[in-house]
Amino acid sequence: MAVSKIGFAFIAIAIFVILASSNQVLAADCEADVPDLITQCTQYVAKAGPKVPPSSECCQVVKRVDIPCICSHIPSTIELIISMDKVVYVAGQCGRPVAHGFKCGSYTVPAPAPA
User: Fold this and answer.
1) CA atoms within 13 A on the CB side of 41
2) Residues 98/99/101/102 CA torsion (nearest 10 deg)
3) pLDDT tens for residues 94-105?
4) Strand partners, 108
5) Is residue 90 within 8 Å of 55, Cβ to Cβ?
6) What b/e sequence results for 36-67 when a residue is b if at least 16 CB atoms lie within 10 Å of its CB, and e otherwise?
7) Is the pLDDT of residue 42 over 80?
8) Half-sphere exposure of 35 (CA within 13 A, CB side)
9) Alpha-carbon torsion 65, 26, 28, 99, what sign?
10) Tens digit of pLDDT for each residue in 69-96?
11) How far apart are CA 69 and CA 57, in angstroms?
């Protein structure tokens, strides 16, 4: 089931409020990327619903953000709202694959399943 427009708005607002009030303030060099990520990509990384390919607008943002910077500042409260597995999926779909073993928040990217 896709995230409804109201659900998407709620998730986006919740992420913004949590990040804004978090004791773990994002470094100045990646802080500016967060509003665009929230606006363009939240519906693709929300815990609810299946993995779906991100929009071109989301990918445009993903292609220019500092993924390691953002990942190193993800508070645990955000991980209650977004799926870190979907974050890694979206990054890969946007041409920014994340290496196995990379840590984003408390999530460590697993090794690919054997063929």
Assistant:
1) 28
2) -40
3) 999 989 999 988
4) 103
5) no
6) bbbebbbbbbbeeeeeeebeeebbebbeebeb
7) yes
8) 2
9) negative
10) 888 888 888 888 889 999 999 999 999 9
11) 21
Q: What is the pTM of this model?
A: 0.74
**Beta pairing, strands 103-104 & 107-108:** antiparallel
Cα distances (Å, whole numbers) of residue 29 to 66, 67, 73 = 8, 11, 12
Residues 6 or more apart in contact with residue 59 via CB below 8 angstroms: 93, 94, 95
All structural domains of the chain? 5-108 (1.10.110.10)
What one-letter code names the amino acid at 99?
Answer: A
Single-letter amino acid code for the residue at 84:
M
Chain-centroid distance, C-alpha 2: 17
Three-class DSSP category at 106 = coil
